[in-house]
Design a protein that fits this description.
Shape: globular
Number of domains: 1
Helix content: 40-55%
Largest sheet: 2 strands, parallel
Distance between the termini: 31 Å
Number of helices: 4
Structural class: mainly alpha
């Protein structure tokens, strides 16, 4: 799969589709970008708006399911070239209702964070994010 997909990516089907073109799993390269930080939600001290509460619920529900599915795929296809895994590791991301705010005050800091994250991922090298997800790297 080349390009971007926003929701419900079936990585297993993508791998199987690639195997219709190539004969070796090691010829398949996968980069993944999680647009959420993957951290547990902080305890809230006040009730938010309906949108904020819904987005918080959704994050709590999906924070582990995406990682669990990916971990299972990594173990199922260990010879795939799992190259770069990007997850928002920095505080200040566009969580909650900010996900719907495209003003420069919100998007510009996120662009700067994304650029730094890309530089960090390149400095760590291919496979680092996936190894960290599997617990092979502990910081």
């Amino acid at each position: 799969m080349d390009g971007g997909t926003v929701w419900n990516i079936n990585i297993r089907s993508a791998i199987e589709g690639c195997l219709e073109v190539v004969d070796d799993l090691s010829k398949i390269t996968i980069d993944i970008i999680f647009c959420t930080d993957g951290r547990e939600n902080q305890e809230i001290t006040e009730t938010g708006t309906t949108v904020e509460n819904y987005l918080r619920y959704r994050k709590i529900k999906y924070v582990h399911s995406g990682h669990d599915e990916l971990t299972e795929l990594l173990r199922s296809y260990p010879t795939v070239n799992w190259r770069y895994l990007f997850m928002e590791p920095y505080p200040g991301g566009a969580g909650g209702a900010k996900q719907l705010d495209f003003s420069p005050e919100i998007t510009w800091p996120l662009q700067l964070i994304g650029r730094q994250h890309a530089l960090d991922a390149l400095a760590y090298g291919p496979g680092y994010g996936f190894d960290k997800l599997l617990g092979k790297i502990v910081e």
